[in-house]
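Researcher: I've got a protein sequence and the SMILES for zinc ion. Could you write out the 3D structure of the bound complex as structure tokens? I'd like something to compare against our soaking experiments later this week.
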Amino acid sequence: METKGPGYIFAASCLHQDTFMKKQTQEHAAHEAKPYAEPKDSRIATAPLKPYQTLLFYKYVHLPEAETFAAQLLKFCKETGLTGRVLVAEEGINGTVSGTVEQCNQFIHHLHSDERFSDMEFKIDEENTTSFAKMHVRYKKEIVHFGQPDVNVWEKTGTYLEPEEWLRMMNDKDVVVLDVRNKVEWELGKFKNAVTVDIEHFRDLPQVMPQLEQYKNKKVLAYCTGGIRCEKATAYLIQQGFQNVFHLHGGIIKYGKVTGGKDFDGQCYVFDNRIGIDVNYVNPTVISQCKICNTKTTKMVNCANPECNEHFVLCEECGWKMKGCCSEACLVSPRLRVYDGSGYYQKGTQQWIND
Ligand SMILES: [Zn+2]
Ligand SMILES: [Zn+2]
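Model: Sure. Here is the predicted complex with zinc ion in place.
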């Protein structure tokens, strides 16, 4: 697998959706919305501005001794004083670690000095504190659950398209832009004219293959949030006989930072407290609609009825009117959570963190 790119340390955040939630402050969200400054080190995107950092990374690489590797990495992280969550599988690594700038540098150098990870990209977020209480490195069957053991991502995957190439190609004739994310994600935002699939979990993608058959001989440009799902999805498409498969390297997030996000309609759904982030600074739009009144809004909440907890689009006005509920039925539920305007509830929030 080749790693190209404009020289950012960069990795996806969509990977963490089934593993944890990351606490984000408003200030952090504002910082995140801005494109990165010019990198100094060709692989590092930000200069240390705050005392702590969070590193996001993934790489599909064949790790036959994954279990041993996980144990060794955990030992290293603990000795270094890092916190975070990392998944290790025979197919690669996927994780987030947090610590001081120095600790994070040690982690980066530790992995970069291993030949298998020498080209691994890191996305660095500046933090005022560490993001986790503990350090976990877990051995798993897959770094992103897909449930198709024949799909070997490190052997065959779609051709990478860097954001600029994607921007040039996505409006070509004979191109099908394919969103491999879940419904809740593309409802908030997606590439203009993208084909979407009605799935709740990434592992359900094989079930919607019949409706994608028609694109078998077209140029398929697949994308997801940060790239990790796409690599697996394109490997699967190729295995299913698709001839011409590409995917957006670094996903929507990197596309937004590099190109300004042209032709991405709406917001990019992220699996942390921010829920939706702006990526399009060129021709931004809002496409998501309030479930109650159909007003266009980017506000997403969890239903205040804990038994329902549906994650859905709800405008400010209906939010108060409905006390944060998705329906009249939920509104009369015996134990509603108190709606404070955010639609975010500490407990139970994890219920929609799925993939
Ligand atoms: Zn409304
Ligand atoms: Zn509800």
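Model: The domain at 159-277 is CATH 3.40.250.10 (Oxidized Rhodanese; domain 1). Residues 90 and 188 are 33 Å apart (CA to CA).
Researcher: Great, I'll pass this along to the crystallography team.
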